């Protein structure tokens, strides 16, 4: 079986390169130890940095790490297996680029990894005369400003985006922190550049209106009964009121939900129904520290500073009895993909990058290749174990885990939600198996739990948190019992079901067999797994249900793989769709920010527009207040009005996007229609801006011009940032599309 795994890996690699498929880039020519084809400036830099690594860190880079570093310097996506030293390879590339005069950002998925890696690699950078810094969500403006002057900066990618957004609304140059988007090396690149690429980073400002209050609607919905008052679709992704349910709510709330002018009431009821009946506590979100905190599906971690749109977040807060947080007014937003494309050069690394090579090429123009292991893999990837029911699956998993514990073999079990991880731990406890649980509810204990997950006989149940940025060392934190674990067969990884993408399965499997260690991995699936319930073709489900024994198991395996393919395709389609919508807004944003930048730094004068549109007013203001004061007044009012107008424009485009899917009913392309309507809405933007500036100035006292401007210009009293994640329950259009897809899959 081990030989089979090795042969499969070799065949896949050969076929990719033979066919020239994305992900097939060969890095052999970038191997500093075997060729002189490198850019002449790269080899000496890498050699010097490698020598410094040995002296400063006690870590001598391997040939594979040098090859990966050279590929990163050349602007490629690099796949390296878990335990092969991506952190050091990235540091070698960052140091070499910095020594050649580049400002380098090493971008990670979260603050923990950024802080850890910056501190870990700091001795290397200091020995080379380079400065290094890290920023996180708690960094002050002064600390950020100083950090951006460092040669090498480690940061979560969202933090860079938020600083770009905050700089975009600054009224004075001194308020800005000025990130320089020169060279970026993205760690866990598939997660950052694909999974979260089109999630908008939002800069919000306080507004006078109170947050939406769903208390009455949620309380009324909580008294309804499923089946009698509302129904759920087969995927449990949306809820629909029955006639009886609508009558009950109208009586309870004292409104006619379907009368003309009752759109707001009906909308709030529908959102409340989704919050109560569909949003899943301990799956989609957890309640911690008195707040609703979303769970990142791909990582199993708390999604810090993320929230849902369209009132859903406030409705869930009402359902949990928590005061509604302020969504505020969106001042500006920026997708991670748009941010990354602003860098002068871009490279990325991950343990699972080749699987998304085509998308990286499509969205970023980033070619990808793989650096092979230093030592051959000894991990045994066993065939999927399939059952008809979850009860049968739990029984089979329990026997597997018990057998490992009996011989002191550590086990890591991957689940896909907080709820599943805790339910599995309880089921194992009933069987006399003690397990540690790592999920979004106790992520503060991650380092300690992961450190001991490789101890003899340890059983660790984890969400996808354990899949990235951490290594499980055999024998425990100090590896003192390593030989004992090796004798037992190394770490065994068990997947409780397949993930929506094969990459996440591969990340989990990659915990075992690190650096040539022995290990094994297996996935257990059942026909009632969520992935199969939502995406498996109906004919495959029916075939499995009608069979028994080995034939049924084969049908379940086939259904599971088909469901994963459907889920992966849907995610790619959603990415393309979201990116297509964002292109129009992105182009308009560049135009607006270009004007704003010119006005802020004085390269283009807002006063010129006032002089052109209202020459008499301009002359009077200059005569009574002086030219410097007038230019400053025009600048401040111009920046304020530009920000206000852009905020209004974003709000209009948001409403347009929400309803544009209806164009499909008229055989129109929704994305093409959105682009056309966005252009129409933007037409005349700057004419309106200049007219607004003139109107404000006309209402001020020329003898006290700057004092009047200071009183007139209204800025948000507070701003905050968050990532706006897609409503996991989908829009009405999303649900309609899913229904059609299920019809065709039958």
Structural commentary:
With about 750 residues, the protein is of the alpha/beta class. About 50% of the residues lie in helices and about 15% in strands. It contains 29 helices and 22 strands. The strands form 5 sheets. Strands 3-4-2-5-13-1-14 form a 7-stranded parallel β-sheet, sandwiched between helices. Strands 15, 16, 17, 18, 19, 20 and 21 form a 7-stranded parallel β-sheet that branches. A 4-stranded mixed β-sheet has the order 11-22-6-12. Helix 3 crosses helix 4, helix 22 packs antiparallel against helix 25 and helix 25 packs antiparallel against helix 26. The protein is globular, with a radius of gyration of 28 Å.
Describe this structure in a few short sentences.
The chain is of the alpha/beta class and 746 residues long.
Please name the defining characteristics of this protein.
disordered N terminus, alpha/beta, single chain, ATP-binding, 22 strands, Rossmann fold, 7-stranded parallel beta sheet, 4 domains, Pre-protein croslinking domain of SecA, 29 helices, globular, 746 residues
Looking at the structure, the CATH topology of the largest domain is Rossmann fold
- Give the neighbour order of strands across the main sheet: 3-4-2-5-13-1-14
Unreliable runs, pLDDT <50, ≥5 residues?
A: 1-10, 727-746
Gap between N and C termini, in Å? 36 Å
The gross shape turns out to be globular
Protein name: Protein translocase subunit SecA
InterPro entries: Helicase_ATP-bd, Helicase_C-like, P-loop_NTPase, SecA, SecA_Actinobact-type, SecA_DEAD, SecA_motor_DEAD, SecA_preprotein_X-link_dom
Domain Helicase ATP-binding: 67-203
Pfam families: P-loop_SecA, SecA_DEAD, SecA_PP_bind, SecA_SW
């Amino acid at each position: 079986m081990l030989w089979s795994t090795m042969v499969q890996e070799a065949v896949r690699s050969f076929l990719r390169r033979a066919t020239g498929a994305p992900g097939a880039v060969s890095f052999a020519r970038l191997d500093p130890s075997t060729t002189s084809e490198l850019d002449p400036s790269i080899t000496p830099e890498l050699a010097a940095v490698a020598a410094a690594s040995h002296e400063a860190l006690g870590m001598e880079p391997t040939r594979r790490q040098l090859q990966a570093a050279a590929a990163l310097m050349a602007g490629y996506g690099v796949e390296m297996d878990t335990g092969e030293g991506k952190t050091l390879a990235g540091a070698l590339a960052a140091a070499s680029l910095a020594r050649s005069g580049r400002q380098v950002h090493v971008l990670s998925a979260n603050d923990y990894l950024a802080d850890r890696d910056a501190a870990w690699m700091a001795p290397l950078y200091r020995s080379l005369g380079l400065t290094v810094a890290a920023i996180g969500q708690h960094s002050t403006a002064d600390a950020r400003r100083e950090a951006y002057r460092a040669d090498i900066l480690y940061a979560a990618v969202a933090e860079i985006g938020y600083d770009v957004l905050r700089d975009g609304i600054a009224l004075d140059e001194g308020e800005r922190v000025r990130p320089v988007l020169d060279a970026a090396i993205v760690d866990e690149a598939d997660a950052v550049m694909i999974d979260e690429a089109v999630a908008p980073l939002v800069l919000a400002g306080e507004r006078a209106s109170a947050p939406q209050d769903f208390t009455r609607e949620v309380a009324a919905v909580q008294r309804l009964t499923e089946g009698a008052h509302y129904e759920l679709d087969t995927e449990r992704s949306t809820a629909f009121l029955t006639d009886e349910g609508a009558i009950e709510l109208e009586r309870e709330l004292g409104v006619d939900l379907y009368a003309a002018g009752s759109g707001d009431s009906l909308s709030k009821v529908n959102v409340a129904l989704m919050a109560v009946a569909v949003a899943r506590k301990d799956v989609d979100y957890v309640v911690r520290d008195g707040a609703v905190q979303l769970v990142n599906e791909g990582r199993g971690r708390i999604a810090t500073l993320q929230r849902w749109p369209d009132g859903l977040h406030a409705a869930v807060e009402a359902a949990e009895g928590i005061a509604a947080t302020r969504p505020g007014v969106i001042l500006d937003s920026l997708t991670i993909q748009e941010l990354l494309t602003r860098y002068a050069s871009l490279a990325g690394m991950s343990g699972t990058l080749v699987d998304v090579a085509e998308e990286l090429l499509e969205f970023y123009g980033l070619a990808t290749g793989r650096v092979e292991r230093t030592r051959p893999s000894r991990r045994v990837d066993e065939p999927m174990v399939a059952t008809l029911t979850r009860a049968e699956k739990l029984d089979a998993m329990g026997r597997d885990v018990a057998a490992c514990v009996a011989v002191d073999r550590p086990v890591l079990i991957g689940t896909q939600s907080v709820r599943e991880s805790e339910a599995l731990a309880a089921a194992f406890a009933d069987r006399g198996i003690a397990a540690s649980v790592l999920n979004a509810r106790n992520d503060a204990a991650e380092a300690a739990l992961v450190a001991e997950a490789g101890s003899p006989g340890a059983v660790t149940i984890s969400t996808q948190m354990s899949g990235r940025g951490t290594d499980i060392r055999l024998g425990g934190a100090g590896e003192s019992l390593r030989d004992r674990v090796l004798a037992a067969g190394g770490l065994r990884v068990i997947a409780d079901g397949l993930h929506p993408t094969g990459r996440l399965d591969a990340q989990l499997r990659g915990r075992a067999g690190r650096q040539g260690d022995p290990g094994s991995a297996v996935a257990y699936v059942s026909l009632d797994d969520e992935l199969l319930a939502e995406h498996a073709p109906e004919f495959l489900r029916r075939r499995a249900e009608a069979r028994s024994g080995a034939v049924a198991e084969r049908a379940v395996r086939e259904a599971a793989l088909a469901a994963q393919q459907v889920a992966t395709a849907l995610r790619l389609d959603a990415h393309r769709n979201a990116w297509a919508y964002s292109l129009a807004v992105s182009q308009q944003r560049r135009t607006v920010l270009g004007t704003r930048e010119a006005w802020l730094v004085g390269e283009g004068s807002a006063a010129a527009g006032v002089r052109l549109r209202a020459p008499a007013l301009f002359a009077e203001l200059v005569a009574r207040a002086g030219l410097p004061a007038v230019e400053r007044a025009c600048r401040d009012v111009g920046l304020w009005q530009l920000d206000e107008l852009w905020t209004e424009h974003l709000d209009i485009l948001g409403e347009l996007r929400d309803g544009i899917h209806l164009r499909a009913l008229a055989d129109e392309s929704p994305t093409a229609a959105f682009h056309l309507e966005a252009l129409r809405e933007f037409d005349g933007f700057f004419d309106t801006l200049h007219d607004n500036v003139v109107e404000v100035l006309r209402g001020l006292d020329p003898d006290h011009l700057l004092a009047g401007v200071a009183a007139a210009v209204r800025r948000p009293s507070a701003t905050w940032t968050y990532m706006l994640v897609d409503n996991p329950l989908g829009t009405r259009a999303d649900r309609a599309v899913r229904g059609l897809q299920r019809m065709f899959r039958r």
